[in-house]
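Board work, copied verbatim: Adenylate kinase
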Amino acid sequence: MGIAFSCIAKDINVDRPEIDMTVLKNKNLPIVWISGQQNTGKKTHGDLIKEKFNYDHISTTELLRQESTKDTERAEAVREALKMKKKISDDIVIDLLKEALSTSKNETGFVISNFPKNAKQAEMFINEIGNVSFILHLYSDTVSLINRAQEKSEETLNEDILKRDIIFASRDIRLSLLKYSEIVENVSTNDPPERVFGNIERVFTDRLNVYPPMAEETDYIRQQDNAQEEI
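↓ predict structure ↓
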């Protein structure tokens, strides 16, 4: 079911780099988090938001994948955590986001998918990086999530384990967003894909007063065909 970095285990920590976020803070660009369970389309919709609104899409899952290929102490910690199915340090996740945001050339805004995974990550982001404009929470019913996971797997997955993981993830997501309920926008992904993204476009229009060009259904289907496996 993809990279899991919020399993219950002791953090693997490394020394944190000093990253100056002054330039980013001075730009005061919109920042949107996309939160939700696995298989709710976070990466797909992050890519679509990038295309329609010219935002920089930063995927925490992709940041961790890229980091795991490097020859650094931090990369080794990420590889070890993934191998042992331990929780990747929130410090590492935040530092990777800080590096990505501070080096981006985008002048429109940012959408960060698969974030936050827990309440600590959300708090660290606000304290060390800046405020979030709003949070897009994508959700689906348990049966649909299980079916999507089974469809993406090459082997039959244990349904009881899937249900347990969904329950734990739902708890962590709920706690991570609890403090920010006034800026959370809940969007169901049970609807047809083009309707889901239509709802997301309306949220952006209402929250940020941005008006993208009309999306055609063929654009959405083509984007889905080209999308990587959703994390």
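The chain is about 50% helix and 10% strand.
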